[in-house]
User: Fold this.
Amino acid sequence: MRFSRRDFIVATAAASLASATPAFAGGKLQVVATTGMIADTARRIGGDAVEVKGLMGPGVDPHAYRQTRTDIVALTKADLVLWHGLYLEAQMEDFFHKLEKRGTVVAVTDTMPRDVLRGHDDYADKFDPHVWMDPRLWVFVTERVRDALIEKKPEAEAQFVANAEVFLAELSDLSDYAEKSLTTVPEEARILLTAHDAFGYFGAAYGFSVLGVQGISTESEAGLNRISSLVDTLIERDIQAVFVESSVSDRTVRALVEGASAKGHDVAIGGELFSDAMGPDGTYEGTYVGMIDHNITVISDALGGDVPERGMTGRLSAGS
Ligand code: ZN
Assistant:
């Protein structure tokens, strides 16, 4: 079938009309979020007034993620785009700065007080982006998401405020649970060794020393020197368990365990942590609260603390 020139013009006009008004089709605010943690937070606050598309699924590393063609379409059409900022989405940084001109883009960490942020040796002029690891810091992000939703859909303000209150109360419970559980870990065992440096805020909040095989980003590979010096640390500090992460290859952590074993020091893999991505879709671990509950519970348990097997509210999967 061939289109006449007139058909083409009509079709083009219809398409541009459709793309100019996707926003309130069906009344829901169309939101696109980068990480699962941001998407979950937006869903909790937005409820049935928003439709949220998360770009990065379980196991996806945000440091390395690049937007796909489908993402670009979704990001361009969205009423509101929520990204993390603080150089987390390093490969998408330029794209978001270009998109900012549309007035639909919010970096959810942009109003966080700078004095609660941590620096890092890897990042001379930047902050550590992994703020979701401390639920008290996620309060700032929650409030930022709530306010961004209100700005784009003021008629749903009461609903957003009420939903945010419920979510903030859960963050407060999560924070109490973390404090209570992690203080049961014997003081000399409070060393958290993971695949990359994602746990700086966690360590600062709960008094753990933190060691990452890779640095703050996953962009550079750990060298042999780094591995062998960490093996020495494992032995010197008598570390009993180290952790793999769902969004980073476990190869280097396993090399450490083997290196220590070759020198006569047995160290266990304490479990898999959700560092930069949440657990499987549709599970409790696939939510922000569930992901952090899982981390707290697995870490406490593997390092000799005393925690309920199924976590804060008994919702963790068995054997997690
Ligand atoms: Zn990271």
User: Anything to note?
Assistant: The chain has two domains: 5-178, 184-302. Residues 1-23 have pLDDT under 50 and may be disordered.
